[in-house]
Design goal:
Length: 203
C-alpha cells in the first residue's frame, strides 16, 4: 500500500480554511483529519478519540519527552498538540492526513516531516479579511483587532509554505478543487515516489 501524504493547512482567522476543508471532505473520500490531543477537560458530548485525544498534563508532558508529540502549543493553561503515533499510523494505512494548525505548529511539523506539504489558505486581501471578521458579529472590537494583527505576523511566514490558495467570496468550490488538485499532483511527484526506480527494476 502506498503511503499517505501529510498536508498542513494554515491561514488567518477569517480565511475560511475550515469551510474550504469541509467542502474538500464533501468532494473526496481520500482525506482524514488528524485528531489532536489536549489536556483540557472534555466538554459535554465530547468523546475521547473523536473530538480530541484527552490527556492529563502529566501524560502530555511524558509524550513530549518521548518525542511522540510532533507539534504543540499552550492555550488557557492547557496543552494542544499532534501525536506522532496517530499521524504515522494513518499515513502507513495510505490515508492523506490533514493537519489544520497555526503557522507556529506548521513550522514544527516541517522540521520533523520534511516531505509534508504546507498549504496556506488566505482571503484575497486585507479588506476582505477584516470584512469577514466583522461580518461574523460574534467578536469584540478588541478581538477583531487582535486577529487582524495576528494575521500580519502569520503571513510573514508566507514563503515557508509550498502552496497558496486564495479563498475568494462565492468561489468555495474553486478553492476546494485547487486543494484536491494540489494533493493529487503531489502524490504523483518523484519526491513522494522515491522507491519507484528500484521497484520497477526488481520486479
Amino acid at each position: 500500500m502506498a503511503k499517505g501524504l501529510l498536508t498542513v493547512v494554515s491561514g488567518p482567522s477569517g480565511s475560511g480554511k475550515g469551510t474550504v476543508l469541509g467542502r474538500v471532505f464533501e468532494k473526496s473520500e481520500g482525506f482524514v483529519y488528524s485528531i489532536s490531543a489536549t489536556t483540557r477537560a472534555p466538554r459535554p458530548g465530547e468523546v475521547d478519540g473523536v473530538q480530541y485525544h484527552f490527556k492529563t498534563k502529566e501524560e502530555f508532558e511524558s509524550l513530549i519527552s518521548e518525542d511522540k508529540v510532533v507539534e504543540y502549543t499552550t492555550y488557557a493553561g492547557n496543552y494542544y498538540g499532534t501525536l506522532r503515533p496517530v499521524v504515522e499510523k494513518d499515513l502507513c494505512e495510505g490515508k492523506n492526513v490533514i493537519l489544520e494548525i497555526e503557522v507556529d505548529g506548521a513550522m514544527q511539523i516541517k522540521k520533523k516531516f520534511p516531505d509534508a506539504v504546507l498549504v496556506l489558505i488566505v482571503p484575497p486581501d486585507y479588506a476582505t479579511l477584516e470584512a469577514r471578521l466583522r461580518g461574523r458579529g460574534t467578536n469584540t472590537e478588541e478581538d477583531i483587532l487582535r486577529r487582524l494583527e495576528r494575521s500580519r505576523e502569520e503571513l510573514k511566514l508566507f514563503n515557508n509554505y509550498d502552496y497558496l490558495i486564495i479563498n475568494e467570496d462565492n468561489r468555495l468550490d474553486e478553492a476546494a478543487d485547487k486543494f484536491i488538485g494540489i494533493i493529487e499532483s503531489e502524490k504523483l511527484s518523484t519526491v513522494h515516489n522515491p522507491d519507484f526506480y528500484n521497484k520497477f527494476y526488481n520486479n
